[in-house]
Amino acid sequence: MQKTPEAIVWFEQVSKNDIPVVGGKGANLGEMTSAKIPVPPGFIVTANAYYEFIHESGLQDRIKASLKGLDVEDSKALSAAANEAKQLIMNTPMPPVLAEKIRESYKSMGEGLVAVRSSATAEDLPEASFAGQQSTYLNIEGADAVVKAVQKCWASLFEPRAVYYRNEQNFDHFQVGIAVPVQRMVQSVTSGVIFTIEPITSDASKIVIEVIYGLGEGLVSGEITPDLFIVDKAGPTIISRRISRQSRRLIRNTTGVENEVEGANYWQSVPPSKQELQKMSDEEVLKLAELAIHIEKHYGSPQDIEWAQENGDIFIVQSRPVTALKESSEVEPEIKQPIILAGAAASPGLASGPVKIILDPNEINRVLSGDILVAEMTTPDFVPAMKRAAAIVTNRGGRTSHAAIVSRELGIPCVVGTGEATSLLKEGQIITVDGAHGKVYNGKVTRRVQTSSVVSLMRDAIVTKTKVYVNLAQPELADQVAARNVDGVGLLRAEFIVSAIGKHPNFMIEQGRQEEFIQKLYDGILPFAKAFSPRPVVYRTTDFKTNEYRELEGGDKYELPEENPMLGYRGASRYITDIESFKMEIEAIKRVRKDYPNLWVMIPFVRTVDEIKRTIAILEEEGLKRGPDFKVWMMTEIPANIFLMDKFIDAGIDGISIGSNDLTQLVLGIDRDSEKLQETFDERNEAVMAALEIAVTTAKRRGITASICGQAPSVYPELTEKLVSWGITSVSVSPDMIGTTREIIAKAEAKQKK
């Protein structure tokens, strides 16, 4: 390209060496076009045009003045200054000569719908990534609309997140220019992503291809689960496939699109006859693979490719190097823009929505689908609202709190222990919750998720010797989670089922309503046993504490207040004392087992060897005898369980399951819900690790199964690796960690074989 660039160039005129002129995106589109890779045609308004506009209009000094002395950590000040800079750009007329050139170029490419995309000139630098900082405008139609969209791209160089990021990276605001590619829109029948390296094992001989119906935004947003193909580059040949049902697709509204509309897309139902089908033929998949191999060879490195198919033709809309594949122990990259609130990372994921502040559980009906539930803390009474919420933020609590545990099970982002969420956030305010990092941002924030999407699908397919179980409590999730590659339920919590009943067991006995209680408990347990059959479902008998029992109807009559309920009348101590209540629970278990003998029992909080002996005796007296199809496990969560492990095994248990939350609490003497001690509360502490090793190795030596069902494996991959090396037989995790845990275990097992 000429040394003094024109204001407008076509894709075929530029290459990967022209980033200073057309930005990273523009240079890449030109490079692929020159390499005869099928790219939708288009032109680029160069950075030179942007610089001339800024300098000749006198905007540089005015924008500098608006940003002078700005504290980018002050989100309100940042937003105000950035908006002022953007308005200065939008209120300044584009030079008429340039505007006319844009109109003429748009007409030359055949008009119609186009994408107007930002391409910063500092993109793809090794020391900084500007990807996603500026705006893209889709479905733009009409010459005047294209001119305005170009100017909006220029203005987006001063979005608050872009100003903040440049400040953090010490970039001069006026040394970073912006080019604007204008590209014909592809009306995608199918679309997807290709990785020319297998992202789990970094196997360069494999290609991974994702396919969905409709526009690629449906995949990028995480809304649609794609078909997944693994292709061997030799051939190429398809070596595995996973076909996903798709009931709806995102399509473009090609009629009546107004000039100002961005992304005028809508969801359309996929015809029932196509929902279960493979979305592309094998021949088309192999054509994609061949094209991906060609692109990889051209660039000389593994590529992450976005593609779309229209009228049988395949187009490449983006290709970027796979520079760093995410390790299993890593979480999603942190968002680089100002936070408004921070707390403990309790459940991973990213979600945006309006704030609903709930100070009393009687108000939970105000929480609608997609809202962000904000509360002082949550209790079982909040669960119906939690199921509707897109994310949860609380003032109090740690990662073992009720909000954290339920959020992980529901698979929604959660940040706890913020201290001031209910006072700082405003009703109806749009926020974004980043559960992986414990951060809350103002407004809606997005990030690209294709890599995690394909990695998640592949992780789920991994086979391991060590079993992967799941922790569950919500009956309506049973079928959904059972469809995953999981070996059973390692912890079925009774507490949520009892909370739904809402009445104290002894209150029901007093009223002669034992049958009603048994039936409701049966109805709560049955969906799990049915969904997972014949895989085992390990039901943990009720582990309510006295304060939680008191909250049930009639509870204050039967429960004395305790100074420290966590260490009070709970677990096995209660079963051998309040035998009539325990018998109702046993009866419900027996009824489920008549049709589903995969239901087992786990006894929590066993303080003494005598307690487990007497509890097992009650089970046997009521007809639940240990045998080939009925196992009794004991929760291992008290130091006494560790010291006397052989004696507890001698008492007649088939397996142990480590409750790492309580075990850590009692080994370290820390209230697990104390916000002030969250940094000290760590299952990786030397003393806790010593206890875990004794538990697992003793169980292995004595020939019984050993599992773990606390939150530790869901949080610390390195701990899971240790457990596998000691010989643990299963790991039970929250649903969101099934695939990740399989990958961690597979790598740990591979190390043992070496």
Average pLDDT, rounded to a whole number, is: 86
Kindly identify the CATH topology of the largest domain: TIM Barrel
Radius of gyration using CA atoms only: 29 Å
> Considering DSSP H and I runs of 4 or more, what fraction of the residues is helical?
25-40%
Helix count from the secondary structure assignment: 30
User: How many strands?
Assistant: 30
In total, how many domains does the architecture comprise?
4
Strand order of the largest sheet: 15-22-21-17-18-19-20-16
Model regions low in confidence, pLDDT < 50 over at least 5 residues: 123-132, 256-263, 324-331, 448-452
Q: How large is the share of residues in beta strands? A: 15-25%
Cofactor: Mg(2+)
Keywords: ATP-binding, Kinase, Magnesium, Metal-binding, Nucleotide-binding, Transferase
Protein name: Phosphoenolpyruvate synthase
Family: Belongs to the PEP-utilizing enzyme family.
Briefly summarize what is shown:
It contains 30 helices and 30 strands. The chain is α/β, with parallel strands linked by helices.
In words, what does this structure look like?
- It catalyses: pyruvate + ATP + H2O = phosphoenolpyruvate + AMP + phosphate + 2 H(+).
- Its cofactor is Mg(2+).
- This protein has 754 residues and is an alpha/beta fold.
- It folds into four domains: 8-183, 2-Layer Sandwich (Dna Ligase, domain 1), CATH 3.30.1490.20; 190-321, ATP-grasp fold, B domain (D-amino Acid Aminotransferase, Chain A, domain 1, 2-Layer Sandwich), CATH 3.30.470.20; 341-447, Phosphohistidine domain (Glucose Oxidase, domain 1); 451-753, Phosphoenolpyruvate-binding domains (TIM Barrel, Alpha-Beta Barrel).
- The chain is built from 30 helices and 30 strands.
